[in-house]
Design brief:
The chain is α/β, with parallel strands linked by helices and about 550 residues long. The chain contains 20 helices and 16 strands.
Length: about 550
C-alpha cells in the first residue's frame, strides 16, 4: 500500500537493488524487528524505500528528503543503507549528496560489503555509524540510542547475533505489489558449515535454522495472499534432510490441492548430499516448479583442496544425473573461473565434464575477491591480482593472464545470451560439437565466442537477430556447414523464441508471424511453460 504523500518518517531503511524484481529481505527483517527490539513508536516511524541502480542520484536524494520531511531540532532523522558489492559505488555517491544536503542526518550502514575491511572504504568515512554482521537486533538498538540517548560512542558497532527465536520473521512486510511482481526471498536458515574460501559464508561457524513451524506458517500466509515465486537464500537447503523434506512437502501439498501451474521455488543445494528420502519427494514434483542452484565451482581436486572445498565429485556427478534423469527439477549449475591453481585446460576439462551431464543451465562466473574472505591467503603464491573497484573481479593469476580472463569474460556473456537463454535449443548441438579441440565442447564454444567478438565488437546490445546471423555465419563460414543444414534449425529456434523481426540469414525464408506463426510451429504446453519459466529465471 502506498504511503500518504503527507506522511513523514523519522527512520528510512534504504537500498539500491539491481532490478525492480528484487525485493530486499534484509530491510524487511530490520523493519520487522524495530517493534520488538526498539519500540512500537519507532517502528511506526520507519519506512522501507527501495530504488534500482538505474535511478538518478539527485532524484533519490530529493525523494528521501521528502519522505523524511523538514529538519526538526528535537527529532533525529536516520537513514539506514544496505550496502552490497553491486551497489556500493552508487550508494557512496548517494550518501555523499545526502550529507551535503542535510548534514544533521544520521547515516547508518550495514550489509556484507561494509562488514569487513571497513577502514579502507570511502562510504564508511562518510557515514555516522556502521553495523558489521547481523543487524536484526543491533540496528533497532542503535536507532533507540540515536533518538532517545544515550548517544553511542562508537562509530563501528559489531552486530549482535541473537538466538534465532529472538528474530522476528519479516514476511508480513512484503506488500501485495511485491507478491504480484517481485521475487520473494525467504530463508529457513542462515549460515553455512563449509569453509569454501571464496565465499563470505566460510566465516560462519555453522548453520542456524529458524524454528520450522512458524516459518511454514508464514509461507502459508504468503501463499494464501497469492505468492507463487519463492527464492530460498539458504546456503545449504539440503543440509538437514528432515527440514528439507517438510519444506518440499509444504509446496507439494499445495500443488496437489489447487493444481497451481505457476508455482516456482528455488533452492541452493549441496551437490553431493542427496539421500533417498529427499529423492523420493523431489521425484513427485511436476515440471516447471523446482529449480536447484548447484554450486560445482570446480571439478579440479587440487583446486578444491586449496580453497578448502569439500566435495565428492563422483557423488556429485551421480546426483546431478539422477536429478536430470529421474526428476523434473531445473538445474542451474555454477562454475567459477580464476580460482587459485586453476588453468584454462583444467577449467575446460571441468566444464566438459559438467556439460556431458546435461544440466539445463551452467553459469560461468569469474572469481571475485569478496571483502573478508580467506581467498586472500593465496594472493602471493598464485599471483592473484584483482580489480580495485567493485565487484573486485580477478584480473590475472600465475596461470591465467589478463587477455585470457578477458576472453573468458566475453565467452561467459555470450554463453548467457545463446545457451542459458534457451533461445537456441535446436542449434546448440551444432555449436557445441567438438571440432577445434577433439572432445572439448568448451573450446568449441570458445571458438564461436572469439568469432562473434571479432564480427560484432560488443557483448551487450546484441539483438536476437544479431545472434541468429552471428551463429549462421560461424557455422557456415568457420565450421563449413551448408545453409541447408543450418537454416531450418535457426528458423525453428527463432520462431519458438517469439521474436518478430527478420535476421539477414533468414530473409528469404517464410517467416510466419503473428497468428499464422502458430500454424508454422506448434509448441506443446510444456515447452511454452518451460520457455516462460526460463525467461523469468533470467530476470532474477
Amino acid at each position: 500500500m502506498a504511503e500518504p504523500l503527507t506522511q513523514n518518517h523519522q527512520i528510512i531503511l534504504c537500498t539500491l537493488n539491481a532490478k525492480y524484481i528484487h525485493a530486499s529481505l534484509g530491510l524487511r527483517y530490520l523493519l520487522a524487528n524495530m517493534k520488538r527490539h526498539a519500540s512500537a513508536d519507532l517502528a511506526n516511524q520507519t519506512l522501507i524505500v527501495e530504488y534500482t541502480l538505474a535511478r538518478q542520484t539527485d532524484q533519490m536524494v530529493q525523494d528521501l528528503l521528502e519522505k523524511l520531511g523538514p529538519v526538526q531540532t528535537d527529532k533525529t532523522q536516520i537513514v539506514g543503507f544496505g550496502v552490497y558489492i553491486w551497489n556500493v559505488l552508487q550508494t557512496t555517491e548517494l550518501v555523499r549528496q545526502l550529507k551535503i544536503s542535510r548534514p544533521s542526518l544520521k547515516i547508518v550502514l550495514g550489509g556484507p560489503e561494509v562488514s569487513h575491511e571497513i577502514e579502507q572504504q570511502e562510504i564508511v568515512q562518510l557515514a555516522d555509524h556502521v553495523i558489521t554482521g547481523w543487524g536484526d537486533v543491533s540496528f533497532p538498538k542503535l536507532c533507540t540510542a540515536l533518538v532517545d540517548g544515550p548517544k553511542p560512542l562508537m562509530k563501528v558497532i559489531v552486530g549482535e547475533q541473537p538466538p534465532m527465536d529472538q528474530i522476528e520473521l519479516p514476511y508480513q512486510n512484503f506488500s501485495d505489489d511485491d507478491l504480484a511482481h517481485r521475487v520473494l526471498y525467504v530463508e529457513a536458515s542462515r549460515g553455512c558449515p563449509f569453509k569454501c574460501e571464496f565465499c563470505l559464508s566460510s566465516l560462519d561457524k555453522t548453520a542456524w535454522a529458524f524454528d520450522l513451524q512458524p516459518f511454514l506458517n508464514e509461507l502459508d500466509i504468503l501463499y494464501k495472499r497469492g505468492a507463487r515465486n519463492f527464492k530460498f537464500v539458504d546456503r545449504t537447503f539440503n543440509l538437514k534432510i528432515e527440514s528439507s523434506v517438510q519444506i518440499l512437502q509444504f509446496f507439494l501439498d499445495r500443488i496437489d490441492s489447487d493444481g497451481s501451474d505457476n508455482l516456482l521455488v528455488h533452492f541452493e543445494v549441496i551437490p553431493d548430499h542427496l539421500p533417498d528420502r529427499l529423492k523420493t519427494i523431489i521425484s513427485k514434483f511436476p515440471p516447471g516448479v523446482l529449480q536447484f542452484e548447484v554450486g560445482i565451482q570446480s571439478f579440479n581436486e587440487e583446486v578444491q583442496k586449496l580453497i578448502s572445498r569439500r566435495q565428492d565429485n563422483v557423488q556429485t556427478e551421480a546426483n546431478l544425473r539422477w536429478l536430470i534423469q529421474q526428476s523434473n527439477a531445473h538445474l542451474h549449475t555454477d562454475l567459477i573461473f580464476g580460482l587459485p591453481g586453476e588453468t584454462i585446460d583444467s577449467f575446460a576439462d571441468g566444464f566438459d565434464r559438467l556439460w556431458a551431464i546435461g544440466p539445463q543451465e551452467i553459469q560461468l562466473g569469474i572469481l571475485k575477491r569478496l571483502r573478508g574472505t580467506p581467498i586472500d591467503r593465496h594472493t602471493q603464491a598464485f599471483g592473484m591480482t584483482y580489480d580495485s573497484q567493485p565487484p573486485y573481479v580477478v584480473q590475472k593469476t600465475k596461470d591465467l593472464d589478463e587477455a585470457l580472463i578477458q576472453r573468458f569474460s566475453r565467452m561467459a556473456k555470450y554463453w548467457d545470451l545463446v545457451v542459458n537463454s534457451g533461445r537456441f535449443k535446436k542449434t546448440i548441438p551444432l555449436l557445441m560439437k567438438p571440432v577445434q579441440v577433439p572432445g572439448s565442447c568448451f573450446w568449441s564454444f570458445m571458438h564461436f565466442s572469439d568469432a562473434l567478438w571479432l564480427s560484432t565488437g560488443k557483448t551487450y546490445g546484441l539483438s536476437p537477430e544479431n545472434l541468429v546471423d552471428g551463429i549462421f555465419d560461424f557455422l557456415t563460414i568457420e565450421r563449413g556447414l551448408t545453409a541447408d543444414q543450418v537454416k531450418p534449425l535457426l528458423l525453428e529456434d527463432y520462431l519458438a523464441s517469439g521474436a518478430r523481426a527478420r535476421p539477414k540469414c533468414l530473409a528469404q525464408e517464410k517467416l510466419l508471424l503473428g497468428g499464422d506463426r502458430q500454424d508454422h510451429l506448434k509448441l506443446s504446453d510444456v515447452e511454452k511453460n518451460s520457455f516462460k519459466n526460463r525467461q523469468q529465471r533470467h530476470t532474477v
